[in-house]
Batch of 3 targets.
Target 1
Amino acid sequence: MFEFRIVAECPHTGARAGEFTTPHGVIRTPVFMPVGTLATVKAMSPRELEEINAQIILGNTYHLYLRPGPEILTEAGGLHEFMNWDKPILTDSGGFQVFSLAKLQKITDEHVVCRSHIDGSQLMMSPEWSMKMQGVLGSDIAMCFDQCVEFPTTRKKAEEAVRRTTLWAKRSREYFMSHNDTERQALFGIVQGSVYDDLRLRSAQEITALDFPGYAIGGLSVGESHEAMYHSLDVLSEVMPREKPRYLMGVGYPLNLVEGIARGIDMFDCVLPTRNGRNATVFTSEGRMNMRGAGYAHDFGPLDAECDCYTCRNFSRSYLRHLAMSGEILGARLFSWHNLRFTIRIAEQAREAIIAGRFPEFVREFTEKFHDDNAQA
Amino acid sequence: MFEFRIVAECPHTGARAGEFTTPHGVIRTPVFMPVGTLATVKAMSPRELEEINAQIILGNTYHLYLRPGPEILTEAGGLHEFMNWDKPILTDSGGFQVFSLAKLQKITDEHVVCRSHIDGSQLMMSPEWSMKMQGVLGSDIAMCFDQCVEFPTTRKKAEEAVRRTTLWAKRSREYFMSHNDTERQALFGIVQGSVYDDLRLRSAQEITALDFPGYAIGGLSVGESHEAMYHSLDVLSEVMPREKPRYLMGVGYPLNLVEGIARGIDMFDCVLPTRNGRNATVFTSEGRMNMRGAGYAHDFGPLDAECDCYTCRNFSRSYLRHLAMSGEILGARLFSWHNLRFTIRIAEQAREAIIAGRFPEFVREFTEKFHDDNAQA
């Protein structure tokens, strides 16, 4: 269980194709993981997720702690049962939401005190709290409770977060090993350090020294430039263990996905495909499109002629624009559906290219075709 | 084409099972028709509609005239092509929206002038306008342009609407026969008359004298009591031609459906299943439930143990309540899905019972089990 096997490597880049074994099935990497914050990947049904070949989805520990809460999730027998999803699930630790969503009140080495973004009630979060809740959720992959810092930040704050992330990783691991079901759940470490190379290296060394079955890179895709992100990945690729899966948190923008894979990343997650989808913004092999554009009113071609998803095989741009303009739920569905399938397919195509020994060609073809005037957005 | 064949009749009630042949397939009656106002049955995909055995859906001429408009619908080749639905479609005439939604400015025998509920722009609607637009839509069944009155209304206003509805039915028929594709589209007449028996009879006589391939009863389910509705149906059952399909407009409440079938109605439509679904209200074999109720938080049984729909076969009430409380799109989807399947299944079960000669037992069992404290709502 939780074995990571490298199937093929690109001789020209850091890209690799692998298989990670979990209690709910084997994950073929590189892989994009749709985000199912509140026990649902927004606008999608579980069987649609299977249809687009979602191999693993995310759950958010902070959100699920607030709604429906640990009591109901325990009664349900965990998140898989609750939401009717029998493939792998990864849960985050709740650490990220402390900084992005909840009202932070106090942070010490001991714990974090914040207020719920739903009803303002007080929460006390800690490594132990997170491991316990992730145990209730019963995810295949749990994440260490970490401290993420905003971008830009000072070196001092970034260094403090690295120190605390290591401290909390130790406490996460300790609690997890003695309380969680280690046969059914793996705990991944998280590397922080903002855009400071030496802090990234220090964090990677401290976290990998704790020997986790997989490692995530946190604190990227929070506002830094694409170049800064790629540079950090380059720095880390030297020190992240080759034999363990590497997970770049919060990344799902198509070009970042391709560049991340080229730098040895195996796993990605992001709300971008579904959030953009609900806003009628789609990604296709040719780039980004906002489907409210008047230019699509008389366009009876498919969204993306190269895509194999339900949306692209059945509906015209004209119809999809009409749904967007009318605020119809079916629009949010069809755009989310396409965006997820498109993003998952990038990882699938990258994997095929790595195995076939033509990954650099794949990257070149993809990036030459994909146009986006808002590439930094 | 457009042949109505009666397959079986209940010897104890007015109920009958039939088959109506259209260019897009045979409709087995009694039938419930989901409403697809803006070229989408809200929250449902076409393939989900096929899965729940929706045999025919509705489109709203007024809404589709405003969005996406006749130009785009013409380019698309009609509504079937535009929305990717290849089974039968019935379009209403736009007359009902004049009174329910648009801001009515002036009504004469010549035409109706009103303002769009979207942008306030002026529209001029008439029998000819409606026939032309329904020709663009290319529905299998078009409806005469009629005048619906609110409830309660005066006898004078109801009589005026009956007179005008007959006048407009003649003009609808005249335009339709010389401009529309009568091989591919049938025009149904509409009987008005509010709750006045003599006006209902007069309207039925005047409309049926025009010889349409099917007849609808309009102006019911607009606020009158269930008993008043049933009484009007009883009065009309004597004079509506037995050999033509009868369509009760705007009715989809489960008990009304069963009682309507017992009074010889063959076709029904209503937004109730989808509108209620988006509001987390569901109908089951036991009655009406609001899924936000705290009592469902720890209920891990299915929504309706007797239902064969995706929602009932895959998710618990606890999970569905969580989706409702969290405002998730998947909740709106799963509730709409179930409500539609439940309503369609009532018509299917009624048909089976009629054919098997046990329709009165079906009615008794259904009404005894179905409980609803808000039965008049």
Target 2
Amino acid sequence: MPDRERRWNGWGFADESAPVPESARTWLSKRLGAGDRLSAVPERDVRIPPARPVPDLPATTLSDPSSRLRHACGLGFPDVVRLRTGALEAFPDAVCFPENTRQVVAVLQSAAAAEVALVLRGGGTSVVGGITVRPGPRPTVVLTLDRLRGLASLDSVSLLATFRAGTLGPEVEGALAPCGLRLGHEPQSFEFSSVGGWVATRSAGQRSTGIGKIDDLVAGLEVATPGGVWRLPAQPASAAGPELRRLVIGSEGCLGVITEVTLRVRPLPECRDGVAVLVPGWSAGMEVCRALLQRGPVPEVVRLSDPDETSFGIALTELPRLASSVRNAIFGLRRFRHGCLLLLEWAGSLQKVTLARQTAAKVWRDSGGLALGRTGWQRWLDERFRHPYVRDALLSAGWGVDTLETATRWSALAALHNAVREAMTVAAQKAGFRTAVLCHLSHAYRDGASLYFTFLWPLRCGDEIGQWQAVKDAASEAIISNGGTITHHHGVGTMHAPYLEREVGEQGIAALAAVTRALDPQGFLNPGVLLLQTPEPGPRTPGGREE
Amino acid sequence: MPDRERRWNGWGFADESAPVPESARTWLSKRLGAGDRLSAVPERDVRIPPARPVPDLPATTLSDPSSRLRHACGLGFPDVVRLRTGALEAFPDAVCFPENTRQVVAVLQSAAAAEVALVLRGGGTSVVGGITVRPGPRPTVVLTLDRLRGLASLDSVSLLATFRAGTLGPEVEGALAPCGLRLGHEPQSFEFSSVGGWVATRSAGQRSTGIGKIDDLVAGLEVATPGGVWRLPAQPASAAGPELRRLVIGSEGCLGVITEVTLRVRPLPECRDGVAVLVPGWSAGMEVCRALLQRGPVPEVVRLSDPDETSFGIALTELPRLASSVRNAIFGLRRFRHGCLLLLEWAGSLQKVTLARQTAAKVWRDSGGLALGRTGWQRWLDERFRHPYVRDALLSAGWGVDTLETATRWSALAALHNAVREAMTVAAQKAGFRTAVLCHLSHAYRDGASLYFTFLWPLRCGDEIGQWQAVKDAASEAIISNGGTITHHHGVGTMHAPYLEREVGEQGIAALAAVTRALDPQGFLNPGVLLLQTPEPGPRTPGGREE
């Protein structure tokens, strides 16, 4: 089937968009002031230099300007600004479309023999520079998994489904649903991101509180490496040395090309239920989430907005007059002056869902929470994949927006939330502009939770990336200094690579560099991604340490 | 507190033992015939060669014969035979007792500078040759974590407890219980094995079906390496590159010395309940287990004996006359001719446990199962840590016994069970003796389960290890050829190292070798364990592959 056309210079489908509601414009103008609108140049105005010659590769390879442009980068903030202004730093010299594992291995071997860099691409939604082609002396080929699609096999007894790496979210669920099964991994990029990309970047889905991160869903892997196919067949558990599947999960293409993934699937739930709850504040909300996770039953979705995100969410939502009056009355209560919106969803048997909801209701009531019914949850469910389109509309309207995320233990969560907000606000002030920082807790665990920050600011023409960088750097520094992980589910890419050593230690970097060098001796797979310096080929220094 | 004395040449406490019941002797004599009794030599008859000189190490170091003997090996079958016959192949030249992380690093650095091999030892219960000193040109020092004991810190908000690596099972639970918490990790070696050992070997506990393997319980780690301390602080989840904690978990001391572990703990359960169920056969039993895992609620303990283990279990259990008659009547039913004993246990709130038991009862009844009440479960609970003592008693009585374990997906479990039993039986026949192979499924997952085999045979004087090796080799070969993991929770050690490459691929071995060489350039940590060949120091061959 022909894929629905994707927007070449922004998020999502070309024929879909999400305008900024008038109420949100008012909120932003009041909070941040107006900015410079960033219009988008037409495709014909993008200057694409001639492609450098690349060796013959044993799979379909295209070098036309349109293909090169459409595979030049992901969808991070700098990517989108450069796409809109037509000012990309580099383009691939060719795009290669292998159709099966054998072709992937053959392409790797040809590319390894030649002096080219390979950028590995799944659904193309990286927001951390993981697939952005960078200038360099070597010609660059983008290897896309676009043609490795579909369900390869299903073991319905063991609830294991093996998908080719390029299979997109809706295709995964579409293949499983007729068998009464689902995966349930639903990142915001669900419609566009691929199984292989999820695994390569250690993705989390919006249901990961109940379903688990992709880390937990992977039972087996097939990886094409320059040295041949590496198979790690599905096992429920093992003690046969370190779990090497976990070394591939999150390796961001530096160890090889993930070609097939065996995933743990589950029966479609008999029943679903959800609720929006207003809790009296951020601390109270975090306590509710912690109690639900530590005492159970664990909801499938847990999503708590902080007061600023709650208030922005209200600004964005246009309700009928009566509903609006009721809402304003509730939010006008002194008790909910710093009110936080909490969305919960349960799935499973009717009995299980009913019991879980009752248990949860006791928890939120004990914390002063007030159930607002199913509407807010249903609205989120319906609109959750539309949110990223708003970025494009905001840029056109004069405001920049980006998101970043982290996670830490429950006892450190409030301090991390404060520190990151404060650092971002101060960084923007120093750079002479205002920023709004919104946050939600959206993936919860027994021992901690993730924080997902959205920041908005008025654009300054020509300095859009500089503004973004100032705030992003401050946030990254605050995260690492306050015990957060530099990324909970977006991945490292190039953006977070400078912070990785502070998180995993010099021994961690040495271990990763050693594995990368062992499996990719030429250092030609996704150079610059994950590790700041791609380990150089050639003899090691004695002692085995990187210089 | 002074530790209770351990048996130097067999399992457990010196003042505790488990005689072979008369009924079991009868069963064994009938099934296997009588064997040669393997008596144990007194300690004074063990010939211990003089210690080779070792460099001064910056921690308490002992070289007396008793310490060297008591740290020469683990408790695998060959270890115990050699201990009983006083014929160990090698002894450490010294035993080093660092008292904190700083001392461990200092010892590593001194040892790396000298030409010694280090064997890292936790509780000393390895059954796979993981801590057995082997002959070699280099003097060998055993570094024991025995003095790194106790709870280092507790974060009761995040339910995270940090223990020093040498802390033993009862000490872990003893430190947590007064805070209303538990870890719940209870391997059969619980009384003697240590936190660091659990992590180094990817241990599973008897409650791991409900609690998770140690892999899932580790939130953070501190590892002493020759290059310094490697800290991977507790995080609930991350996407910051591959999960390096998982690279340390199962690394069996080849990457460094685990000195502290932050574990995910949980509230003590309000209530526990268990039951013994008789199911009409092995297939029916596996179906019950699979249904419980895939549909939930998941029991904390699932333990299904195959028909042979069920019948041996009955032979071992002496009941009062009336109970015995009832039991014989039930097992005499045609429906239960190949009956299998299933033990289940639930823990949690009264409501949760009651509901889970009701749901499970429906599942086992649908499969023709019959609840036998709580007695069988309670007996298992009371006696489960006594079972390993039986090995020593059996050796004295003329029978060898060992265990081995694997895991695979549900759809392959029956075939794996058959193949391993068959291979072991045939191997014994070929070698001219009979063997009884018993099996239970004891760690269940949504996608598969572990199989734990016990095999018994009549000993042939002087050839005890040869007999064992013949059966063990056949089992390992059958496991690897039939899609099982070579070990589900005992670890690789030296015994399973020859099979690792067939499980994880040449790329997997290359990755492990590269990491080992990066963190232990001298190759002096647990040489021969995990990887067949300890990567040699010095320059690599071009292309990065091991020769």
Target 3
Amino acid sequence: MAETIIKIDLKKSPYENEMIHNRWHPDIPMVKTVKPGDDFIIECYDWTGGQIANNDSADDVRDVDLTQVHFLSGPVGVEGAEPGDLLVVDILDIGAFQESQWGFNGFFSKQNGGGFLTEHFPEAQKSIWDFNGMFTKSRHVPNVEFAGLMHPGLIGCLPSKEMLLEWNKREKELYDTEPERVPALATLPYADTAHMGKMAPDAAKVAAAEGARTVPPREHGGNCDIKDLSRGSKIYFPVYVKGGGLSVGDLHFSQGDGEITFCGAIEMAGWIHLRVNLIKDGMAKYAIKNPIFKPSPIAPKYDDYLIFEGISVDEYGEQHYLDVHVAYRQACLNAINYLTKFGYSKAQAYSILGCAPVQGHISGVVDIPNACATLWLPTDIFDFDINPSAEGPSKKVSPGMDVPLSKDK
Amino acid sequence: MAETIIKIDLKKSPYENEMIHNRWHPDIPMVKTVKPGDDFIIECYDWTGGQIANNDSADDVRDVDLTQVHFLSGPVGVEGAEPGDLLVVDILDIGAFQESQWGFNGFFSKQNGGGFLTEHFPEAQKSIWDFNGMFTKSRHVPNVEFAGLMHPGLIGCLPSKEMLLEWNKREKELYDTEPERVPALATLPYADTAHMGKMAPDAAKVAAAEGARTVPPREHGGNCDIKDLSRGSKIYFPVYVKGGGLSVGDLHFSQGDGEITFCGAIEMAGWIHLRVNLIKDGMAKYAIKNPIFKPSPIAPKYDDYLIFEGISVDEYGEQHYLDVHVAYRQACLNAINYLTKFGYSKAQAYSILGCAPVQGHISGVVDIPNACATLWLPTDIFDFDINPSAEGPSKKVSPGMDVPLSKDK
Amino acid sequence: MAETIIKIDLKKSPYENEMIHNRWHPDIPMVKTVKPGDDFIIECYDWTGGQIANNDSADDVRDVDLTQVHFLSGPVGVEGAEPGDLLVVDILDIGAFQESQWGFNGFFSKQNGGGFLTEHFPEAQKSIWDFNGMFTKSRHVPNVEFAGLMHPGLIGCLPSKEMLLEWNKREKELYDTEPERVPALATLPYADTAHMGKMAPDAAKVAAAEGARTVPPREHGGNCDIKDLSRGSKIYFPVYVKGGGLSVGDLHFSQGDGEITFCGAIEMAGWIHLRVNLIKDGMAKYAIKNPIFKPSPIAPKYDDYLIFEGISVDEYGEQHYLDVHVAYRQACLNAINYLTKFGYSKAQAYSILGCAPVQGHISGVVDIPNACATLWLPTDIFDFDINPSAEGPSKKVSPGMDVPLSKDK
Amino acid sequence: MAETIIKIDLKKSPYENEMIHNRWHPDIPMVKTVKPGDDFIIECYDWTGGQIANNDSADDVRDVDLTQVHFLSGPVGVEGAEPGDLLVVDILDIGAFQESQWGFNGFFSKQNGGGFLTEHFPEAQKSIWDFNGMFTKSRHVPNVEFAGLMHPGLIGCLPSKEMLLEWNKREKELYDTEPERVPALATLPYADTAHMGKMAPDAAKVAAAEGARTVPPREHGGNCDIKDLSRGSKIYFPVYVKGGGLSVGDLHFSQGDGEITFCGAIEMAGWIHLRVNLIKDGMAKYAIKNPIFKPSPIAPKYDDYLIFEGISVDEYGEQHYLDVHVAYRQACLNAINYLTKFGYSKAQAYSILGCAPVQGHISGVVDIPNACATLWLPTDIFDFDINPSAEGPSKKVSPGMDVPLSKDK
């Protein structure tokens, strides 16, 4: 059996574990070193570090401290890795802990994080998803069950010093264009809640003030939240520092394209089994800027879809110019409205789009002025037929608890 | 054999055929009427109406008259169809004409149309794709061959009068924000080159002045350019006028998500075999605003991919806010750069992304400030291995003709 | 457009066309010669040469002259092909003729051909399948519709003289073990109805007496009736004579594994578009005895299945030893009985298993004394849900015409 | 987390565990009782009960005591289950134990068990497969790695008394036709090594003498060795005794169709997570004789194949009549010979066919006198290209240890 090189204790705060960090910085010390060809297991907190509980209240989602996220396990050094190499990572498996067979999905309050449809779902809500082997279902979203497309929401190597400075610079410039905005345009370095891993206290203090937040995806990968980067896939990461420094966290049991609920996928604590190899000087050999990857040979197959179109005229009738973001929002709203015809609440429908292996395609981006995006809703996750018919829909959804909501304080 | 209810003659101008039109207007007369349950065949011009030839010069792409497009076949009336119904359309098959077994892909000059990567490919270029049964290859883009994912780029029902006015209003408002822009922000009604089908001359003159251009996708579907709306799929179209008025054109032999080259897919003339049915009052029954559809059971399977990530920091280093358009552009540029390492020119690589069944996914849209988009490049369309390896790439592309380019005059 | 190198006239007897033959013999002259890399189209009679009509009587199936089959188009010579080479054949497309958009499936009378379940269906029956673009349905088998998995039931190169002698010898030996058996154990050479293509009359007379019948699959491929050798696949055929001599016929619109109804698949006349290439000395290079092939990238996807098991205890309770034939028969009977619970007649159910893209797997062949075979019934070809549920099945099949039966005379 | 209702200790003999049994008999007492809707975990010995070790000698395969197999976990009672019901079983997950991340594949000596190709591999051989997360590879079979298609080789409900008698009768009749045969035609009851679970000693003694051996698949399912009955699938089992009495064992990490090596798949000890439900009176409702099942939504996708044909002329040139067993053997031999051209030994190639997710199709069973079977070899499990090319194969297989062989004593 592969060695577990990073262990965690769910009963303890991630701040107590020096193999965890929650900022990106080139100077965070490696917590372990492995060799090319090795495989090993890394345990991970859920992205919030345990702030969300398995219960029927959304208070914890409403009150979450987002300056703490994401708690990452690592960085792991790889012998021989040098800037310019590609670190080849095979995700051999992912799982939840035996004692923690559940995950959560939530909508953040517009006052604290927001989300893709925050105008329509402005207050905190939460659904809990129980895992039964490879499958999941939720007491808050009846009549759906599906196999997990487990993946790390966040994985990548440490940035170089130059790259870090560039990140901070460009994000600050954006932030400064509208500094009062809620939600903010960007998450800037924030030392108070930084966890700099094994760094010595003095150095950590300095680094915390400039350590990049983990929220956005960047050149190194990071918080890409790509559902198809799932267990079984093979990823080629750019290396920027000696040893590579691979960190991982934010495990998801499943997610729809876009991670539209922001909190986010079906979020879980768990473990990830990895194997690493190197392509020396691979960045130049293959002109690599961002990571590239091969999808898994063992992803769940939910390939019968009902596909919803959206165009870049928003829900208020306003015309936008080739805006895929607006177009995808319309496709999502169209799907939500459709599902309500079968008895789902809008929050339940939104949860489904955030949690199930929904595809979001950029279908047309040149037909001025309208972008066209499509949302692919898998039909086989429902225990009834959701396809249209001449008879029209009937209320199929079993009565039960809706997605809990906690009003803003 | 099903009846061919609309015939065309490739040797004649589409303007001579009164079963063709190139504007949207509720008053365009039905050219044929069919019954629910009927299946029938419709012949279609390529979207430009024959402006592009099978040769090795891009002059015709450079000089194309885009005010003429798209030439559509129809409208076809369906007995019993009324506003509020859903018109269920099965695409039973699509094909090119025996005497016209080829298609074209082009990049418009930035001066005349532009495209998704027009800053990088500012001048007109064209590739010709020959069809060999279900497969295609190009003398301008060696070492790729793939089966066609044939689909209509443009299909939908006539708008109501109210809907037409709304389209014109919102697009004019957008246009007016930057009326001098090249390419324009929107294509407004333009009477000079309008073809109003069977409309009587006086009425046609009036209607031409307000008929919506066919360029963008809209609520009725229209020019969605969704590659997966392919032969074998089933589509549910909103009906806005009595009889429905289904028109179709802009047939594509294949296309990548986004239709990023704008001209566009592998564009072809050909025929489409359809079957129609109705869901009475289906729009209300299912809360339908835009068309929905089921994908085909017989689409080409190129499901081994190399996936490229892009984030919403543009190629000049500027930070954008959750902009999927920018993110997808980066993923495309990353793929293009990758392919050059095997010997493709950038134009050849761009053609591949525009023509092959490339997927474009909206992977993350909430992780401020970066959207993450992924481009899925099918690996099995190449006759050599394009996956990364420790050895690095070698020049694999056979020497030959590059994609012809015609400089702006 | 590719050249049609072999043309047929459905209104004329295949015996009048010297590009057709119905026996295997090394001396049948090539009807055309092509070059490696060429693609071309070949037209084909249905396997019976037009003996079966599109009507509602099975008399023609009952009275069929099986000594005539199969009518093949060819042989086509390939420049440079020599014994020991592999002839690489790409099936670029297959289609029915515009004027002949239908096919037939039948059960032969036990007195004249029989079939896999001939004890259960001892009399001639026939179903007619209409083609609507890529899809088919039958007035005799309601509530099913599916896309065609078009393939040549029979394709291969001419045998060498030595191979022919070996075929005749071994089949005669088997035949002689039970010469009175009905149906016979093997089909021996039969000169009366032989069609030897372009052979000169005297030579033809001699060759007809020894020409191998086309019924069984053999080393060269021949009548393999492999549904997955469908349009889009690539096949590597052994070459035994100079020029190869590729012949093809017995086109099927669709078929289930096993071709269990014997007459057989959905049988049709039509055309096939091929491309040929050579691997010199390929038989030795790859130790090839029988053809090998790659499946198509564009086969219909009906991949939700209900799977039936069968073991090698026959329907009369008798124990057989690791007999896959018996086991598959049980799986088929189990599926037929299951379908009757939804209102299908047994003949309708048998037709479905013969025509639809049913899979037959050799699941276990070592667990003495029982072989285990599985029949995979695609569920998406039905317009109702055939999966089991707690409520049990209800009669879903629309009333209509059953599969016509003609009693033995 | 679901409860583990049957636990085992790999360090102890299965004979010491009264929740294990190795014969089928209606009177074996239930070891646990669950309710419809429950999910639970069952631990299982490997089928030999630990007779095979992770080493480089095949002595244990040669000397295996096959009268002991298979060690099953159960029977588990289900509240409310009665004869005539269908027991619906969802396989929620399967895994190996943390401390036992490996499996074995072997060929039995012809003197002790034999196998499908025992004439070609008459002596005992063994390969060991290490598990790395969801993937496996073997030090004895280089250059292949693939994700597991984990499944129980053996699962089913207790037979009724009548059914048991019928099994014993028909198998004894077959056995008696050639009682001296090696390997035997059937495995008859054998009391000496019987393990009757919780049965009281006196009753166990009586039952052991008539308890059916677990080797063959039968009406209840049993040792079907169907690779696609994998984790994620849903199975409908006939119920013959009050409470059902579900037993399971013989877990496989992966297997090819046919389980042609007999010992067998990649055999492992491990656990299986199940959920049970009932369809009351389901056998009559759906005319069920043998189990039926739905395949998993989360099976590994290795869907690029090289397909080998075989016909029912055996490797010695003898003609058989529509014998799928012979035909599949030829397809297997063809594949083995093909693989040797890339440097594999025949034993390595045979192991691959037994272990990898190879498909075996019954392609044609009516074209007298030759059945046609196809073996589908997945190409993506190899780390080099195994497709044919004009250049011919080169030795690609890494040097190393061949599959260990132990000569008969």
